[in-house]
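Page header: ASSEMBLY MODEL / two components / 434 residues total.
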Amino acid sequence: MASRNPYEVLGVKPDAEDEEIRAAYRKLAKKFHPDLNPGSKQAEAKFKELGTAYDIVGDKDKRGRFDRGEIDASGTEKPQNPYGAYRHYADADAGERYQGSGFRGAQNMSPEDLDDLFSFFGGAGRGGGQGGEGGARQFRMRGEDRHYLLNIDFLDAINGAQKRLDLPGGKSLDVRIPAGLRDGQILRLTGQGGEGLGGGPPGDALIEVHVAPHSLFRREGDDIHMDLPVTLGEAVLGGRVAVPTADGSVTMTIPANANSGRTLRLKGKGVPKPGLAGERGDQYVTLRVMLPDQPDADLTAFLKDWAPSHQYDPRSKLR
Amino acid sequence: MITIETVIRTVGGVRERELRAWIEEGWVRPERQRGVLIFREIDVARVRLIHDLRRDLAIGDEALPVVLNLLDQLYAVRRRLRAVNDAIASQPSSVRRTLRVALRPPRPRAPRKKK
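Prediction written out in full:
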């Protein structure tokens, strides 16, 4: 979708003060916030457009970059909200938790409640000259959402996987883990929750996924970090070494004189970005120089010769 | 199970002390199991909404309970309307037709177009 100019969206001039932009955003957001306009697709779309616009020009840094033409009007999409919007819950039975006073739940509505409802809306109640009570009142109700926990391996979260979740009672659910899943993310399996009543649709299964840590890899956002042990020789002379990645082993070139603690980047070997096919973060490899496991007589002899005439101070910054 | 730490982690920009004050005020109503606060998804979404209202919409803490109260009423009405809708949908088509006619809004008296 082509994005409109953010200044235009907010109705301000391109040279408007920051405060003016904030005020314009607030004014429009109050009008179009979708949780204040439930059911209005138009408000939802408008609010999204506002958010994208304000995301750019409401941020000093991004506004500058936009003004200089470094980023376009689509800016960056805000990260997906893992729990969904308030209106989706408040419209469903879950909303009864925040029942306003004077209202009882939509489920278990008694005939009196229904009368109450009709009078509330100003219409005639039950039997109001319409020939009395009709047939049995059947309520359809959506089944409840069921919550589950699922623990998965680090690499399954990175690469995606197919998991089976055994439920109490012998049933099981097949869960597709999308590549790049974050720890704590919730997956929704539509229609896999509790059965509906009176022909109502079933609820959903909501699966909170926990990712176990890995012995080598650490995840930071879309990037993966790891320590790579290298020999003294590889550090001093450079060389090509095999490095494990989430995607299999790759060969990496270590430059000559690469010190312990130096970090090298393997581009595109990080976490697949959800929703962006083929795009991945990077893997950062931090070198750790390792001496031989056993004392090496030649190395010791060489250093006894070499060290006295080649003094250097790696601790100069500690003072 | 969603704990207060998870909520703080998922809803960026809300401090725990702040959230506890909102719970104290009854704006957010998690359950308490053996002294531990347990949130449901609607609670997390509501924390985000309150955060939006205060930060993006600059609604002050004096006005916020009024806004929340009106919203709670709006959603309660919407849920009841949905229940009524569902009830109507499960009726035989003759009943539905009768209701459709009865619910038709009065037609505005538009000036007639020339044929």
